[in-house]
Structures are given as structure tokens and as C-alpha cells.
Write a structure and sequence with these properties.
With about 900 residues, the chain is α+β, with helices and mostly antiparallel strands. The chain folds into four domains: about 80 residues, no CATH class; about 220 residues, no CATH class; about 160 residues, no CATH class; about 200 residues, no CATH class. Helix content is about 50%, strand content about 15%.
Length: about 900
């Protein structure tokens, strides 16, 4: 029997144990025993139970180690500390002095629990938020891909700006054949992704599949954990159908049976033999990919120009990207001559200005989410700066309250360096406590953020808090200690401290220099908070602008689902369409169902396919224009709430008589028949010589790709049309069912389809509202995260302003009492304090507006319907900041106006 490798224990807890346990034979023995026991529990009781056991054992070992450390630390304290922490005994090292100062700082902070708790909680929020976002950024953007020498992997795409195809697209077989000759490539793999049905004795299941060439695995440097990979000979023979499965499918469907290799299973309508099982960390091309089967490469050019495949390559070490592009372009330029018998394909390559495009594989996988993640990391960095400014203000207030103590220390011989060390020790203790609590928040926050994140977030399964994330947390804790502790330490360790002993006036105003420092920190807090407020405001406006876009259909009360018909059981287009019609009729009879339709691709999900078309009675010179098309059943437009502008919708007769009728979108009508009635006009796919499609209706534009992208020319064809060269059988349609409370129909839909064919699995069950929400999930994710950060910044900024004004009021109590005794009214005192707060807020607003004007340009790619310098957003967020600042100023001002003159003067 083949040995099955033991699964690795949870990475976070294993790393934690390595930190806790001292390196040595005992540590290796304990870790080995835990690993062995974990593997046995996975096999016997499953993964969740084994993970819980390993977590409990790790916590228990950590608790015992902490108790031993505490016992040793008590003995160390008795031997190390004497009465005065700042007295240096002969022979003491600098490290011992630091330890005594840290211990003294700890005892001092414990005597002020309220002050300590406020600072620790504030720091924990800033540090925890940074640790959470850093964990996500590190896992998605910074960590290398789980492939051998992943930096050598690239994705090769295509671009044809002259063919009215603005986006990048895939390749076809002939490019794979040509590019294999590129000197700069070590290996090359071709693959395509689709959905398919797996059937065996355990039933049928819809899975994500990849059709790959054998050199695909070689290119990625991947090896199976069980069995072997397909060979080149098996890929060349259509009769040798082999398949590789994922470890997840192996465990779930086959019970991790090591004898699964050699078993026959029906995959994508063919019997195939399982030859290997991939490891848990192999998740390519998609995270959900569960099956890889061999692809028969077209070497004779019969499928030339079908740009539906993807190409991955491993480049030679040190290969320059421009040199590689030159090699690929030279090879691609051979194709017009090799396929001269296909003039439209040649025209697409030449007049379309075809050119290859190369992306590093990580950049290709991460895609458009790279910018939002960096923005989020910068956002929480701003929050940490605000936290540090806030804590620095509190720290300075505490330091000013200890001026006499510090002056006494200076008078007794403590040098400036020693006093700075004392301040930094206290800051280090606070930051350490905040860092520990921040790490706890990160442990809770990472799973919470993953629940908020879009499911399409690349590498989401690899995101977890690890040693590097904890190290980062410790690092920013140390930086925070320096940030909020150094300035007060320098200011309260000057040579003028001896003069403080002569100051017997407790209520006198603070020095202008100290007041300027505190005010400057408040201004910085307000400015940073406004930058985040403006950024979140712009994203909120973009979100509402997107949600206000008319998608071209009514998403309310629509349930969608898909199913796939096997070729053997349902041969031919008529048989397939007839069964779809049976399903639609059965669903219409369900209680509450108003109408039923079907489409090849639901809007805002998979997207339509594009094809060149010829327009009758129009010039055919140059590149054929691109039109996007899909196939629909009768009643589709009615069910989706898509309005027919001219003519009529497709009917059942269009499908049964196969006359070649079609419905087009308003954009297609305007593009090809401007200021004309398009009803009765005809078009056909480029290269099709069998007949024309006749326009019988025009419907409103539908946003098929996403809500941001303007509608493109679109054509809707019946499921069964006329016999043309490129006729398609829709075997995996998406049904749309309009009904009140559509979520309640799921079980009834399953039962109805089960009556017709119990072997058919249905999948992709969701409402159209869910699909619309998922189309803006990237913006929603960024908006919510930025809005939460802005709210934290606003609260922290207002607390900072409140704290400074409260301290000023307490320091000026005698002065305020004297003013009131000499006849000043409480309203005047109120205005005086509020005016000081407004001045600080105004300076913060000016700083924030300037910073936002520069930094919000980074949001340009995320915005919709608004500009980075939107005046209304700047004005609205500034008003919010000003109102909050007024409230933060009013509370200390009200306290000042209520001062009793006689009591305040007696205090002095």
C-alpha cells in the first residue's frame, strides 16, 4: 500500500510552539510527537477535530511554560531589584538598568490603571488593525506563490487594439505551438478552465475543471502527493483519457483512499482513469479547481483563432521581459503566412495589431485587487499615526504632571540620557501591552476580515496569522513606543528641569513650547482623520452611484440556477432544448412562480462571448466589428424585466422553426443602423456562409460585464437557431425564475428537476440581487474597510482635541476664575475655549484638505461617477470634521464656564 504523507498541523500554532519551546532535543521530541498524533487524529476523526486538539495542546504547553517563566522571574526580581530603580549599582550592566526601569515603569503604570487602560486600548486598536491588514497584504501580495521558483513564472496574454477589443484576452492552440520555440522560455503549458460533471457510484457533482497539456504541471514545478502526472503520449492520444484530482476532492468524495489511483470515473462526459492526486497547496488555475484532465492540442489549425485558452510559461533565469516579448512577437508574426488560407484570421492578426503580453504570474493572479489592498494598508497606517499622536499627547500630560519628580531626579544626579531612558521604558511597557492585546485582536480580526472580503479574493485560503505577522506586530509596537515616547522624553529631560523646583504655581499656564507641541499633535490628528474621511466619502459616493446604475434588468424577486446535460443522455440541439422547455414548464407550475426563462450566461456573472460580424448592405472592408452574443429561451426578457424597445421578443416558434431570427440591444442598433429602424435588417457571424440572422426586436441595453462597463453591442439568439457553421448547443444554461420570496423556492426547484432527471446536479443557486451585490464587492470591501478606519480616526481625533482642551482648562482654572471674578460672563469663557478648539480644528482641516487633494488620486481606479477632487465630498467631510471638533471643544468649554471663582483662587 502506498504511504500517505501526514498532513501538516495548523501553521500558526506550530510556529507559536517553536517560539515557546527552547530549541533542543526536548523541543524536537515534543513537536514530533504532536505532529504524529495530529496525523493519526486527522485519519481517525477528520480535520476539524484534529485542529481543535492541536490548538488545545498548544495552549496547554504555552500555559505551563508561562508558569515556569513566572516562577523564574520572581526569583530574578528578588535578586535584581533594590529599593531605588534608578540608582546604578557598581557592576550593573546597561541591560540591568533597563530592566529596573521597565519594572519601575510597570509599577508606576499600575498605580494609574485608568490612564494605562486608555492608552493600551488605543494602541491595541491601531496595532491590531495594522496587523490584520498586513496579514492579508503579506499573504496575497508579498508571499511567493506555492510553486518552485515562482518568480520565473509568467502568464502570456494577447492584445489587439486595432480590432476594437480593448481588454486583454487568451490565446489559441497555434500560439502554444509557436511560442514553444522561444529561446527565453524553459517550458510552456496550455490550459482552459470550465465547469463539468463528475459521475461515479457516489452520484453526480458539478466541479471546476481544467483541461491542460502535460507540460502545464512541468511548468509550474508541481508534483502529486499520490500517483503520477499525465504523460505527453497520453495527451496526444484521444483514447488515453487520464485525470488528476485535488486533495480536497480525494478526501471528500473518495475518503482519502490511497487505492483511488487507477479507478475509472466519468469526467466531462467521458470515462477517465485517475492517475494522481495533487497536494493541498496546489490551487491553480482557480482555488476551486478539483479536476485536471488531458487536453488534445490542435496541431493542424482546425480551431485556429479560438482565443479561449490560457498560457503559462517558465522563463529562463535573468531573462529580460522586453527581450522575451520581442521573441514572442517574432514567432507570432509567422502566423499570417502559416494560415494564409484563413483570410479573416490573418486580418485579425495584422489589421488588429496583434501583440503578445507578458505578466508575472503573481501579478496576473492578484489582478485588480492589488491597489485596494495597498490602499487599506496605507489607511490603517494613518490610523496608527493618529493613535501615536493621541497617546503622545496623553504621555506629555502625564509627564508634565511628574515635572517635580523628574526635577528631583535631575537634582540628585540623574543625567538626561537616564531620564530619557526612564520615559522610553514606560512607553515600551505601554506599547508592549498594546502590542499583545493588538495581536489578540488580530487573531480575532483576520477571520472577521476574511468573512468581509470578497470570495474572489485571490489566495484567500493562504491568508493566516503567522510568525512574520506577529513579528510585524511586535515591530510596529516598538515603533509606536518610540513615536509617542521619544518627544515627551526629550522635552522633559532638558537641563532646565531644575527650574521646575522653583515653580510653586500649580495652576499657571503651560509653557508656550509645550502647548505648541500638544496643539501640533492635535492638528496632525485632525488632518489625517480628514484625509481618511474624504477617501471614505468618495468611495461611498461611488458605491451609491454604482448602485443607482440601471443594469438593464429588474433584479428583484429572481432566483437563478444552472444545470448541465450530459452528451450521452441528451444528444443533439433539439433534444437538449426540448428538455430545457420541460424544465421551464414544470417550474411555471410551482406556487408563486410568475415566469421562467433561461440564458446561456446570466448578466454580471460569466459575460457574453464576442465575435466579429458582417452587416448586410454594409462595407466589409477591414476588420469585422465585434458583437457580443448569448442564447436565450422564450420568456427570458419578460422574466428578467428587460424592456423590448422595438419589434418583439424571441418566441417559441423562433426556436422550433429555426428561421434564424435574433433580438439585438439598443447599442447594437445605434452602432450599425443609426437613425434607422433595424427591424428586418440582417447580420451574420464573420466567416459564416450559410445564411443571415434577421433582427426581429430591439431590447434595452444590459450591463453584462459589470456595472462600471458601458453596454456593448449585443445580440440574443434562440437556443436552437438555424444550421450555421458555428451553431452552439447550450448544455449548461442558467434558468431565471421570477417569484415572490425566491429563496424559498430552492427545495421545490430541486424536487421538480429531480422528477424529470434525478441524476442532474443543479448548482450556482443564487438570487439576482446577490449577483448584483457581488459585482460591486471589490468596491464594497474597500469602502467598508476605509469607512471603519475613517470612523476610528474621527473618534481618536476628537478624543485628542477633547483631551488637550480639558488639560488646558485644568491648567488655567485659576486664570478662568480670575476672569469670572473680574466680571467676565460664562458665555465669554465658553467662547474663549471653543475658539481655541476651532482654531486647532481649522488648522487640521487645512492640512487634511491639502493631504486629501494629493492622496485621493490613488483612489482613481476605484471611483465611479465622481472625481478624486469632488468639491461636495471635500466640503461635506470637512463639515463633519468641524461639527465633531465643535462638540469635542464644547464639553471642556462648558466645564470651564462653570468654574467657581472663589474656589479656584483658594486652590492657588
Amino acid at each position: 500500500m502506498t504511504d500517505v504523507p501526514r498532513p501538516d498541523p495548523p501553521r500558526f500554532w506550530a510556529c507559536l510552539l517553536r517560539i515557546i519551546l527552547p530549541d533542543g532535543v526536548v523541543s524536537h521530541t515534543i513537536m514530533g510527537d504532536l505532529h504524529e498524533e495530529y496525523g493519526d487524529r486527522v485519519v481517525q476523526g477528520g480535520l476539524p477535530g484534529a485542529r481543535s486538539w492541536y490548538r488545545r495542546e498548544s495552549i496547554g504547553i504555552g500555559a505551563r511554560a508561562a508558569r515556569r517563566w513566572a516562577m523564574r522571574s520572581d526569583e530574578w526580581e528578588r535578586r535584581t531589584f533594590s529599593g531605588q530603580p534608578n540608582v546604578k549599582r557598581q557592576g550593573d550592566s546597561m541591560f540591568s538598568n533597563w530592566l529596573r526601569d521597565v519594572w519601575y515603569a510597570w509599577r508606576s503604570l499600575m498605580r494609574s490603571p485608568g490612564y494605562t487602560a486608555i492608552i493600551v486600548l488605543t494602541l491595541a486598536l491601531g496595532i491590531g488593525a495594522n496587523a490584520v491588514v498586513f496579514t492579508v497584504v503579506k499573504s496575497v501580495l508579498l508571499d511567493p506563490l506555492p510553486f518552485r521558483d515562482a518568480h520565473e513564472l509568467v502568464q502570456i496574454m494577447s492584445r489587439a487594439p486595432g480590432a476594437n477589443v480593448p481588454d486583454e484576452f487568451g490565446v489559441s492552440d497555434e500560439f502554444y505551438v509557436q511560442y514553444k520555440e522561444a529561446p527565453g522560455l524553459v517550458s510552456l503549458g496550455l490550459y482552459g478552465v470550465s465547469g463539468g460533471i463528475v459521475r461515479d457510484d457516489n452520484g453526480a457533482e458539478r466541479l471546476r475543471m481544467a483541461e491542460v497539456t502535460p507540460d502545464y504541471f512541468e511548468t509550474l514545478g508541481a508534483q502529486p502527493i499520490l500517483g503520477r502526472l499525465p504523460t505527453a503520449e497520453e495527451s496526444a492520444l484521444d483514447t488515453a483519457q487520464v485525470v488528476v484530482i485535488s486533495s480536497g476532492l480525494w478526501a471528500r468524495r473518495f475518503g482519502s483512499d490511497p487505492t483511488v489511483v487507477g479507478r475509472s470515473v466519468e469526467v466531462a462526459d467521458r470515462q477517465r482513469t485517475i492517475v494522481g492526486v495533487m497536494g493541498e497547496d496546489f490551487r491553480h488555475p482557480e482555488r476551486e479547481t478539483a479536476v485536471w484532465f488531458t487536453r488534445i492540442v490542435d496541431f493542424d489549425g482546425s480551431n485556429v483563432g479560438e482565443f479561449s485558452q490560457q498560457l503559462i510559461a517558465r522563463v529562463r533565469p535573468g531573462m529580460d521581459e522586453e527581450v522575451l516579448l520581442g521573441q514572442l512577437k517574432t514567432l507570432a508574426d509567422r502566423l499570417p503566412e502559416l494560415y494564409a488560407s484563413a483570410p479573416r484570421y490573418v486580418a485579425f492578426l495584422t489589421e488588429g495589431q496583434y501583440t503578445p503580453v507578458v505578466h508575472p504570474l503573481k501579478e496576473f493572479i492578484v489582478g485588480e485587487l492589488q491597489q485596494p489592498l495597498w490602499i487599506l494598508l496605507g489607511t490603517v497606517g494613518f490610523v496608527l499615526l493618529i493613535v501615536c499622536a493621541n497617546v503622545a499627547n496623553l504621555f506629555m500630560v502625564r509627564a508634565e504632571g511628574r515635572r517635580r519628580e523628574l526635577a528631583v531626579r535631575a537634582a540628585l544626579g540623574a543625567g538626561r540620557r537616564r531620564l530619557i531612558q526612564l520615559h522610553l521604558s514606560e512607553a515600551l511597557v505601554l506599547a508592549s501591552l498594546g502590542g499583545v492585546l493588538g495581536a489578540v485582536l488580530a487573531i480575532v480580526g483576520v477571520p472577521a476580515m476574511l468573512r468581509l472580503a470578497p470570495e474572489s479574493l485571490p489566495r484567500i485560503d493562504e491568508i493566516q496569522l503567522d510568525v512574520l505577522s506577529l513579528t510585524f506586530t511586535a515591530g510596529i509596537s516598538l515603533l509606536a513606543a518610540v513615536a509617542f515616547g521619544l518627544l515627551p522624553a526629550i522635552k522633559h529631560s532638558s537641563r532646565r528641569m531644575i527650574d521646575w523646583l522653583k515653580d510653586s504655581s500649580r495652576g499657571s499656564s503651560a509653557g508656550r513650547e509645550r502647548q505648541l507641541t500638544r496643539n501640533s499633535l492635535v492638528v496632525v490628528q485632525s488632518g489625517l482623520a480628514l484625509v481618511l474621511l474624504v477617501g471614505s466619502g468618495l468611495l461611498i459616493r461611488s458605491f451609491w452611484a454604482l448602485r443607482s446604475v440601471d443594469p438593464g434588468f429588474d433584479s428583484q424577486d429572481i432566483l437563478t440556477f444552472q444545470l448541465s446535460l450530459p452528451v450521452n443522455a441528451y444528444p443533439g440541439a433539439e433534444r437538449v432544448a426540448g428538455f430545457h422547455q420541460q424544465i421551464a414548464e414544470g417550474l411555471r407550475g410551482l406556487p408563486g412562480v410568475e415566469s421562467v426563462g433561461a440564458v446561456a450566461n446570466v448578466p454580471l456573472s460569466a459575460g457574453m462571448s464576442g465575435v466579429g460580424v458582417e452587416i448586410e448592405r454594409a462595407s466589409s472592408d477591414g476588420q469585422p466589428p465585434i458583437v457580443y452574443y448569448t442564447y436565450v429561451m422564450p420568456n427570458y426578457f419578460e422574466t428578467m424585466g428587460i424592456t423590448v424597445r422595438q419589434g418583439r421578443a424571441l418566441e417559441r416558434a423562433d426556436q422550433e422553426t429555426r428561421l434564424g431570427n435574433a433580438v439585438i440591444s439598443e447599442t447594437m442598433a445605434r452602432t450599425f443602423w443609426p437613425n434607422q429602424n433595424p427591424i428586418g435588417e440582417r447580420f451574420r457571424f464573420a466567416g459564416d456562409t450559410t445564411g443571415w440572422e434577421t433582427v426581429v426586436g430591439v431590447v434595452e441595453d444590459v450591463r453584462d460585464v459589470d456595472l462600471r462597463t458601458d453596454p456593448k453591442p449585443a445580440a440574443y439568439l434562440p437556443f436552437v437557431g438555424r444550421n450555421r457553421d458555428n451553431n452552439q448547443i447550450v448544455r449548461s444554461p442558467a434558468f431565471v425564475v421570477r417569484a415572490h420570496n425566491p429563496e424559498t423556492l430552492v427545495s421545490a426547484v430541486r424536487a421538480q428537476i429531480g422528477q424529470l432527471d434525478g441524476s442532474l446536479p443543479i448548482y450556482a443557486i443564487q438570487t439576482m440581487e446577490q449577483i448584483v451585490n457581488e459585482s460591486v464587492v471589490r468596491l464594497t470591501f474597500t469602502m467598508i474597510a476605509l469607512a471603519v478606519s475613517a470612523a476610528m480616526a474621527l473618534i481618536l481625533g476628537s478624543v485628542g482635541l477633547y483631551g488637550v482642551l480639558s488639560y488646558v482648562v485644568s491648567q488655567r482654572t485659576h486664570e478662568i476664575g480670575l476672569r469670572l471674578a473680574l466680571g467676565a460672563g460664562s458665555t465669554q469663557v465658553l467662547k474663549m475655549v471653543v475658539a481655541q478648539g476651532v482654531r486647532l480644528a481649522g488648522l487640521g482641516l487645512a492640512l487634511g484638505i491639502a493631504g486629501a487633494a494629493v492622496l485621493t488620486r490613488l483612489l482613481q481606479g476605484l471611483l465611479y461617477g465622481t472625481e478624486p477632487l469632488d468639491i461636495r465630498t471635500f466640503a461635506g467631510m470637512s463639515l463633519v470634521m468641524l461639527v465633531v471638533s465643535l462638540l469635542a471643544s464644547y464639553l471642556p468649554a462648558r466645564k470651564a464656564s462653570a468654574v467657581d471663582p472663589m474656589s479656584s483662587m483658594r486652590m492657588e
